[in-house]
Amino acid sequence: MDAMNARAHSANPLMSSPRHRSDSAPAAPFLPMSRAEMTALGWDACDIVLVTGDAYVDHPSFGMAIVGRLLESQGFRVGIIAQPDWQSAEPFKALGKPALFFGVTGGNMDSMVNRYTADRRLRHDDAYTPGGEGGRRPDRCTLVYAQRCREAFKDVPIVLGGIEASLRRIAHYDHWSEKVRRSVLADAKADLLLYGNAERAVVEVAHRLAAGEAPRDLDSIRGVALFRRVPDHVTELRADDLDSADEGAARRPGDTVIRLPAYEQVEQDREAYARASRVLHRESNPGNARPLVQRHGDRDLWLNPPPIPLTTPEMDTVYDLPYSRAPHPSYGDAKIPAWEMIKSSVTIMRGCFGGCTFCSITEHEGRIIQSRSEGSILREIEQIRDKTPGFKGVISDIGGPTANMYRMACKDPKVEAACRRPSCVFPDICPNLNTSHDDLIRLYRKVREVKGIKKVMVASGVRYDLAVKSPAYIKELVTHHVGGYLKIAPEHTERGPLDKMMKPGIGAYDRFKQMFDAAAKQAGKEYYLIPYFIAAHPGTTDEDMMNLAIWLKQNRYRADQVQTFLPSPMATATAMYHSGVNPLRGVRRGASEKVEAIKGLKQRRLHKAFLRYHDPDNWPLLREALKRMGRDDLIGSKPDQLVPAHQPPGTGKAAAAHRPLRRADRPRRFTTKGVPFPAKK
Question: Hey, which end of the chain has fewer CB within 10 Å, N or C?
Answer without folding.
Answer: C
